[in-house]
């Protein structure tokens, strides 16, 4: 923590959030799954069932379905990217790389701001006349999204000084929230952390790790600065599929490990370092030992910051009771 916030300038925004009690850090966090495969570990992480790969839906998807009602906004759940994150599987969450992709387009790919009256009218009539009730409902929902997002997208160009890297993935979420769209759950991905070589020291401002931390920091800082007071209603969880080994390798990097550092940032956060820290000598065969289960963190955030439901259905086979929570969130 000292090296991250004080030894280098990579995390100035996170340092400010930490000092204002809006950032909780959970060391030695992770999953009981022993795999070191990125693909398998992330799949299990997002399913929320690390002891079985047979699960077909995701933990966020189960939460959305358990708390859904017939009057839900189509944009209640949003995954930023070209495909829906596995954590949303089984739900009606919408996947989009940016807001412009939710606008109607002509055959020559020229976007129609909010959809022209002619095109909207034609599509509305076509879906209304559909004999298949599912097609009719899905068509109406899609047109509803276009009507809702169109004005926001037309007046929502990403600012010129908005951070690159992870920033563009957070911009659609920030813009939807600021535009009054009732987004409850959102997901965005940030790659590039497979640091097997040339990580650089904590004080090396030109090092790979410094750049990665600085990019994450800048994006989260811009996100909460843009939201202003609305940020008090937004809680962000930062996590990855597994951590890195304790000892460096011969290439100046760290190989696949187990324990990671999770972060809970923003509104409703009980700041500070949470959970148990076993240290670097009580290790797991050279890895940071996982002593804080990621599902305990997510269970607490869902219970205190989101609609309530039976968390046992969200994380089956795991004790989601408050006895295992780490105190990362307030109500």
Summarize the structure.
It contains ten helices and eight strands. It has helices spanning 2-7, 12-19, 38-47, 59-66, 117-128, 133-154, 167-178, 208-227, 294-305, 311-314; strands spanning 23-30, 77-80, 94-96, 185-187, 235-238, 260-266, 272-273, 292-293.
Q: Could you tell me the number of beta strands?
A: 8
Distance between the termini: 26 Å
**Helix coverage percent of residues?**
25-40%
Secondary-structure class:
alpha/beta
Largest sheet features: 5 strands, mixed
- Low-pLDDT sequence parts: none
Portion in beta strands: 5-15%
Whole-number tally of structural domains: 1
CA-based gyration radius? 21 Å
Average pLDDT, rounded to a whole number, is 90
User: What's the total helix number?
Assistant: 10
Give your account of this protein's structure:
The two termini are 26 Å apart. The protein has helices spanning 2-7, 12-19, 38-47, 59-66, 117-128, 133-154, 167-178, 208-227, 294-305, 311-314, and strands at residues 23-30, 77-80, 94-96, 185-187, 235-238, 260-266, 272-273, 292-293. Helices cover 34% and strands 10% of the residues. It has one domain. The longest helix has 22 residues, at 133-154. The strands form two sheets. Strands 1, 5, 6, 7 and 8 form a five-stranded mixed sheet that branches. The protein has a three-stranded parallel sheet with strand order 3-2-4, with helices on one face. With 331 residues, the protein is α/β, with parallel strands linked by helices. Helix 7 runs parallel beside helix 8 (208-227).
């Amino acid at each position: 923590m000292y090296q991250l916030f004080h030894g280098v300038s990579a995390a100035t925004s996170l340092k400010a959030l930490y000092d204002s009690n809006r950032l909780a850090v959970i060391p030695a966090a992770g999953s009981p799954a022993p795999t070191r495969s990125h693909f398998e570990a992330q799949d299990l992480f997002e399913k929320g069932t690390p002891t079985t790969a047979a699960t077909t839906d995701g933990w966020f998807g189960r939460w959305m379905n358990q708390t859904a009602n017939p009057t839900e906004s189509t944009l209640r759940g949003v995954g930023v990217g070209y495909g829906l994150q596995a954590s949303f599987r089984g739900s009606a969450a919408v996947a989009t790389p940016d807001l412009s992709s939710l606008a109607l387009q002509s055959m020559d790919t020229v976007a129609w701001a909010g959809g022209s009256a002619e095109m909207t009218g034609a599509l509305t009539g076509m879906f209304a006349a559909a004999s298949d009730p599912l097609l009719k409902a899905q068509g109406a929902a899609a047109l509803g999204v276009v009507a809702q997002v169109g004005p926001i997208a037309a007046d929502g160009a990403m600012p010129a000084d908005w951070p690159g890297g992870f920033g563009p993935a957070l911009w659609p979420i920030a813009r939807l929230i600021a535009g009054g769209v009732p987004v409850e759950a959102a997901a965005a991905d940030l790659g590039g952390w497979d640091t097997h070589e040339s990580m650089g020291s904590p004080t090396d401002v030109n090092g790979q790790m410094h750049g990665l931390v600085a990019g994450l920091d800048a994006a989260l800082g811009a996100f909460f600065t843009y939201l202003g007071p609305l940020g008090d209603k937004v809680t962000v969880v930062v996590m990855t599929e597994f951590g890195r080994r304790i000892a460096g390798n011969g290439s100046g990097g760290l190989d696949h490990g187990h324990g990671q550092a999770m972060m809970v940032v923003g509104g409703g956060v009980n700041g500070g370092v949470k959970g148990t820290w076993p240290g670097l000598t009580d290790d797991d065969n050279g890895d940071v030992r996982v002593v804080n289960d990621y599902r305990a963190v997510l269970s607490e955030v869902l219970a205190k910051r989101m609609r309530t439901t039976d968390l046992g259905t969200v994380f089956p086979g795991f004790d989601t009771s408050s006895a295992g929570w780490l105190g990362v969130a307030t109500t």
